[in-house]
Amino acid sequence: MRDTLNGTSYQSGSARPSSGKVSIRNVSKIYDPEGARVVALDNFSIDFAPGDFLAIVGPSGCGKSTLLNILAGFDTLTSGEAYLDDELLASPDKPPRPGADRVVVFQQGALFPWKTVLDNVTYGLIKQGLVGRKEAEERGIAMLRSSGGLDRIAGSYPSQLSSGMQRRVEIIRALINDPKVLLLDEPFRAMDTVNKSTMHQHLLNIFRDNPKTIMFITHDLEEALYLADRVIVMTTRPGTVKLDIKVDLPRPRSREMMASHAYIALKEQTVMAVREEAQKAFERGEREMA
Amino acid sequence: MQEQASAIAVDPVAGPTTATAAPAASVHAPRRRKMTFNWRGLVSIAVFFLAWELAVRLRLPGFHELPGPITVARVLVQDFLYSPGYWESWAISFKRVLLGFLFAQILGVPLGLLLGTSRRFNAIVFPVFEMMRPIPPLAWVPLSILFWPTNEASIVFITFIGAFFIITINVYDGVKAIKKEHLWLASSLGAPRLTVFRRIIIPAVIPSIAVGMTLGIAVTWNVVIAAEMIASDSGLGRLTWEGYVSSTLPVVFVGMISIGVAGALSTWVVDVIEWRMMPWKRR
Amino acid sequence: MAAAVGELVGSGLYKTYRAKGQAPTAVLADCSFRFEAGKLSVVMGTSGCGKSTLAYILAGYQRPDRGTLTMDGAPVAAAGSDRLLVFQETALWPWMTVEENVLFGPVSRGSSRQAARPKAAELLDRFGLGDFKDKYPTQLSGGMMRRAELAQALVNNPKVMILDEPFRGLDVMTRELMQEYYLKLFEDTHLSTVFITAELEEALFLADRIYIMSDAPSRIVKIIDVDLPRPREIAVTVTRRYAELEQEALDALYAGRELEAL
User: Fold this and answer.
1) With an 8 Å Cβ cutoff, are A205 and C201 in contact?
2) CB A105, CB A163: distance < 8 Å
3) Between chains, do C104 and B182 touch, taking CB under 8 Å as contact?
4) In this structure, are residues C189 and C25 in contact, taking their beta carbons and an 8 Å threshold?
5) Among A10, B88, B154, C193, which is most exposed with the fewest C-beta within 10 angstroms?
6) How far is B4 from chain A (nearest CA, A)?
7) Is there a contact between A180 and A102 (Cβ–Cβ < 8 Å)?
8) What average pLDDT score do residues C128-133 get?
């Protein structure tokens, strides 16, 4: 089943969601235009189709987080437009606002430490007033259960959980609001190899059961290739698209696949591109310090 | 948001890591932001004085005995600003603060260091120290008057007590807080004990000494004013008290303002000293 | 070339922490290893296993409860400048300049500043810090601080360098560059190195041999010879052999560990 928008092929059997089409057209972001004038994003354009798993990689400071913040509604843009499902999401005249249709999972724990897991998960639903408490809790328990039996920790507090479990709860909290787009900003950064791999499996399972448009920012190139349908390599500041790599590997993804020719070829392409940009960034940085 | 940003090396190229903050370092030469003057603050100060004057003029409850700001200003300029007696009070209070503070440093810093580095010394001395620490400085006044031969000595002793415990405890905590890696590395590199003490431990506690100084100077002023009111016939505290006792109330206000300015001045001096003590913290 | 020095052999090491009011935690149990001289040995495991404890014992900051540790055949215990440890967090003394930090070792052991300066300057230049010798550590970036610490250690001519997740807090690009830095240093000098990390990619990129540690109470459970060619370059991470070694290591890391029920 090929999508004509960008040619990403989808494993048959996974339904495409009906919403979550994102269009970013010539977006630029300049910080402190009267003063230091830092151009974080410069004429950045991409389109992604509903249900795409998009990974964004690039050297530090290339503007990855800025892009995510604009989409999520935490930051304004200086020029250009962003559209969600063909509706204008953000433009210089229309400051974007956070919404339940685009939910973010951050790098550090954002669970409320004084609420139980279940209360954390249902918080958004109840706050929005879409459903009553009882129904929210039922949905919460159902989602927790289907995510590897997490319903057994529904009454625990975040501090009692491992960081991996906290991450999973956060992802469920994001998904229970049925957002159109799920945004993840280096969510597994602080984890070591083994825990990270476990999280990857969980995320992919969720993606399989709950197809959504996902934008995933990371520094870990192997992680990007393992998880995503498309990997966007950004240039160093000012950030724009350097390379748009289609990851044509079959789903479900497996660890052994990382030894295949196709994977290694993709990895080489990605690694070289990121490295080139990172070298430029590093040299500029050290020059600035001296 | 990425709270880890502070633990991760601050790379000048690493751009914005929080949603709304602009990056700390920039690609291009930084241009100064225009300083915006706090007009609102100025207005609120003016309103404060206006309200005070009005409250007095309108004889609001509690205010009918009090002078307004204009009266106070007049008394300050006419009767005090050019009177040598006034400036003598300044000198006397300052001297007491300085002496008490200095003695507290001279005794407190070594005591704190010893408590932190010698387990035996700590076991013997710390219980007695901790027993006396909760006693507020002013509670020492009667004992101090009885004990010391001169009035001046008893007042300086009170200011000393005020700063002494604070300074000692801060230095002691500072020693306890030294990162073990700093000491381990020194031992690996073959540094003898005295070198470690001189080049690692002492510089490591300088920030704690600085904290002790800042807290100490504030306490010393509090204490000296009260001690003067109770036990002395000179100084800014006495001046204030006499204004009250002789019902020349503008003098009370003059006294308060003077003490406030003196305290601010002392804090500023201490800040400058601290800034010079820690060249590595300036950047 | 002179015979390489700095072989560290540990035999049956045990270490348990006993904190007041808490149950004792066994960190190392029957941990044995042989880190060969002139090789870059990488110890790998998840966070929370006894890797740092092992580092402290190797450096002499802590003593094992049981077991023996020898260097080049002779037992070692106390900390000394023959085995220097670079910690996870910087141990540079913030109140001393970079140069002062580097000179500290030689000067503390009796050398004069004059005598020690040339070597310090040479090392700092080599690490690209020549212009920064009069700056304070707080004025340096994370990567620069780490390089300064390497200079600080190397000026003492240690036989073994122990590095405990030294690049952990750095951003990814700096981290990769630091890895290349250390690799170049190692490949020039073959200074015996024990490098501890939780990142598999880092381990594969640097190591001659990877020693995989189990979770606490930890011991070395698998040894993988990394026969990738030296000098190592980034291109080696996209070769077939690299991928094979990666799988082998992941298998060992996952062995006995169940994925949480799906």
Assistant:
1) no
2) no
3) no
4) no
5) B88
6) 8
7) yes
8) 89
CB contact under 8 A, A285 and B12: yes
Give the Cα separation of C65 and C213 in Å (integer): 19
Chains contacting chain C through 3 or more C-beta pairs under 8 A = A, B
Note whether A288 contacts B25, CB cutoff 8 Å. yes
DSSP string, chain A: -B-TTT--B--TTSPPPS---EEEEEEEEEESTTTT-EEEEEEEEEEE-TT-EEEEE-STTSSHHHHHHHHHTSS--SEEEEEETTEEEEBTTB----BTTEEEE-SS--S-TTS-HHHHHHHHHHHHTSS-HHHHHHHHHHHHHHTTSGGGGTTS-GGGS-HHHHHHHHHHHHHTT--SEEEEESTTTT--HHHHHHHHHHHHHHHHHS--EEEEE-S-HHHHHHH-SEEEEEPSSSB-EEEEEE--PPSSP-GGGGGSHHHHHHHHHHHHHHHHHHHHHHHHHHHHH-
Q: Are A6 and A205 in contact (CB under 8 A)?
A: no
Which residue numbers of B have CB closer than 8 Å to A's CBs? Answer: 1-4, 11-17, 19-20, 22-23, 25-28, 30-33
Instruction: Give residue B3's pLDDT band: very low, low, confident or very high (50, 70, 90).
Output: very low
pTM of the entire structure? 0.78
| Residue C35 burial (C-beta neighbours within 10 Å; 0-12, 13-18, 19+) | buried
Three-class SS state of C26: strand
Tell me the residues of chain B between 179 and 238 that have a Cβ less than 8 Å away from chain C: 179, 181-182, 184-192, 195, 199-200, 203-204, 206
Asked if the Cβ–Cβ distance from C138 to B283 is below 8 Å, we say yes
Cβ contact, residue pair A285, B1, below 8 Å: no
Burial of B50 (0-12, 13-18, 19+ CB in 10 A): exposed
**Which tens digit of pLDDT belongs to each residue from B69-81?**
888 898 888 888 8
Q: CB–CB of B27 and A39 under 8 A?
A: yes
CB pairs under 8 A between A and C: 82
C150 touches C126 (CB < 8 A): no
Nearest to C121 by CA among C87, C97, C93: C97
Separation CA B101–CA B162 (nearest Å) = 9
Query: B29, exposed or middle or buried, with CB in 10 Å at 0-12, 13-18, 19+?
Result: exposed
**Residue C257, number of CB atoms within 10 A of its CB:** 12
Give the residue from B3, B13, B27, B32 with the most A CB atoms within 10 Å of its CB, the best one to mutate. Answer: B13
The proportion of chain A whose per-residue pLDDT surpasses 90, expressed as a percent, equals: 22
pLDDT at A32: 83
Q: Does B186 contact C108 at a Cβ distance shorter than 8 Å? A: yes
All chains having 3 or more CB pairs closer than 8 angstroms to chain A: B, C
Average pLDDT of chain C is: 89
